[in-house]
Design brief:
Shape: globular
Order of helices and strands: EEEHEEHEHHHHEHEHEEHH
Number of strands: 10
Oligomer: single chain
Structural class: alpha/beta
Radius of gyration: 19 Å
Strand order of the largest sheet: 6-7-8-3-9-10
Bound molecules: adenosine-5'-diphosphate, magnesium ion
Number of domains: 2
């Protein structure tokens, strides 16, 4: 397991600012005055008990759900800001935010390679796809992605033949083919073997600094492996933020979350 850790507070420009966001469903605040700031190139993990608002938080960033109040701002490298709360889902995706859901949505009867080509073209739109001819740049890009997600020897196999873990990696590869600035990844290690989990951790760490990443996860061993700065969500609000060790030792965090989960991780 890697012991390499970058400093927690790096003083680089922000890519995402979420401030004062509240979202209620039938009067119940799933997100409650949430403040969250992500630096360019950062790998952030989010933990929190079931119902803490983690997936809703991702829904708000990707435009799937609109906040009732508060702002969600994406900062461009050229200094411009975009209010994501005013953009539609596909527009936010085009601004460079990609999301991976828990269940992989790959095309099982297509090859691994073709899945990546399809994903590359998704960004270009229907018209471009209709007249698509594979360029050398595209091929090189796909080969690079295949290496990154360690599927370069599986390029010509049908995606349906991959193991569960490899399917998850392919889907991460499909996001990477679109070269997103920010990747949102919801519970990538769910259902994976220990070895696949560790490889997934290595993969995510290799993306740090090239992309910004927000990773939601329950598996504490996995969080320990990849954690830089950890955000603990509880009742739609940030309960605590800091290193894995500081968060793990925090009495409030232990009470709401790690008391249960921490025990389970130690027993495993
Ligand atoms: P987590 O991902 O941390 O487990 P969620 O974001 O899925 O939590 O859910 C947070 C809370 O908001 C839960 O109590 C859930 O029932 C509620 N919630 C989420 N989405 C909706 C929705 N579309 N309608 C009603 N309630 C919702
Ligand atoms: Mg969830």
């Amino acid at each position: 397991m890697s012991t390499y850790h970058t400093p927690l507070y790096r003083d680089t420009p922000l890519i995402l600012s979420v401030s004062g966001v509240t979202k209620a469903f039938d009067g119940f605040k799933a997100i409650d005055d949430l403040n969250f700031y992500l630096e360019e190139g950062e790998l952030r993990t989010i933990i929190g008990p079931n119902g803490a608002g983690k997936s809703t938080f991702m829904d708000i960033i990707t435009g799937r759900t609109r906040p009732d109040v508060g702002s969600v701002t994406m900062h461009e490298k050229d200094g411009r800001d975009y209010n994501l709360a005013k953009l539609r889902e596909f527009e936010i995706n085009r601004r460079g935010i990609g999301r991976k859901f828990q269940t992989p949505s790959i095309y099982k009867s297509h090859t691994v390679y073709d899945n990546l080509i399809l994903s590359l073209n998704k960004k270009r739109g229907v018209f471009a796809t209709l007249f698509y001819r594979e360029s050398r740049e595209d091929r090189e890009r796909i080969m690079e992605v295949l290496k990154t997600v360690r599927l370069d020897t599986r390029a010509n196999d049908l995606a349906g033949m991959l193991s569960h873990g490899q399917k998850q990696w392919l889907e991460i590869g499909m996001l990477l083919a679109q070269d997103p600035r920010l990747l949102l990844i919801d519970e990538p290690a769910a259902g994976m073997s220990d070895e696949e989990t560790e490889r997934t951790g290595e993969l995510l760490m290799s993306l740090e600094n090239k992309h910004s990443l927000i990773v939601i996860e329950h598996d504490m061993e996995f969080i320990r492996q990849i954690a830089r700065k950890v955000t603990v969500l509880h009742q739609g609000h940030v309960l605590k933020e800091g290193s894995f060790e500081s968060v793990k030792a925090d009495p409030e965090v232990i009470q709401v979350y790690l008391g249960r989960q921490g025990k389970r991780a130690e027993n495993n």
